Amino acid sequence: MCELSEPFYNDVFVSLQALKARGYERLVLQVGRGSVVPAADSCPQVKLEVFRFKDSIAEDMKQADLIISHAGAGSCLEALGAGKPLLVVVNDKLMDNHQLELARQLHIDSHCFYCTCSTLTDTLRTMDLSVLQPYVPGQPKHFANFLDKALGVQKR
């Protein structure tokens, strides 16, 4: 069992207030194997929906106005592929932090905002979603055609 400190709850409350101030009225949380599963009525600021796992969260992403995600590559690419504004929360306690590298590059390319848990509320308050640019996935077929041409492979 995990005991949560009062500062944790204060941080969550302030972050929820920041979401509400931006006009968000509903929060859908995937908690996975997490030890904290908030009750649906625990957040009076927003309507809260909580689940552990689903076969696919594509429909949730499609309905979202903002996606807040951890910085796993698959999660980031799925969120960007949904064409929704993305805020990536980096786990800054990881060694050799590839999550930070990915989030920073996506931010440099204007595809998302990123923060850590400790800077989440400030980021929610200050981010300007209008500056984000759509993510255009790579075209592996073009690369394959280039390789075929470079290697002199004849197509049948």
Task: Please give the structural blueprint.
Layout: H1 6-21, E1 26-30, E2 47-51, H2 58-63, E3 67-70, H3 73-81, E4 86-90, H4 98-108, E5 113-116, H5 120-126, H6 140-151
Parallel strand pairs: 1-2, 3-4, 4-5
Helix pairs in contact: 1-5
Q: First CA to last CA: what distance?
A: 62 Å
Tell me, rounded to a whole number, the average pLDDT.
86
What is the architecture at the second tier of CATH? 3-Layer(aba) Sandwich
Query: What is the CATH fold-level name?
Result: Rossmann fold
Order of helices and strands: HEEHEHEHEHH
**Rg to the nearest angstrom?**
19 Å
Question: How many individual helices?
Answer: 6
Sheet-strand content, in percent, reads 5-15%
Tally the beta strands. 5
Strand order of the largest sheet: 3-4-5
The name of the CATH superfamily reads Glycogen Phosphorylase B
CATH class: Alpha Beta
Low-confidence stretches: 1-6
Query: Helical amount among residues, as a percent range?
Result: 25-40%
Structure classification = alpha/beta
Overall morphology: elongated
Explain what the structure shows:
There is one protein chain. The chain has 156 residues and is of the alpha/beta class. It has one domain: Rossmann fold (3-Layer(aba) Sandwich), CATH 3.40.50. Helix content is 39%, strand content 15%. The protein has six helices and five strands, in the order H-E-E-H-E-H-E-H-E-H-H. The strands form two sheets. The chain has a three-stranded parallel sheet, with helices on one face. A two-stranded parallel ribbon has the order 1-2. Helix 1 runs parallel beside helix 5. The N and C termini lie far apart (62 Å).
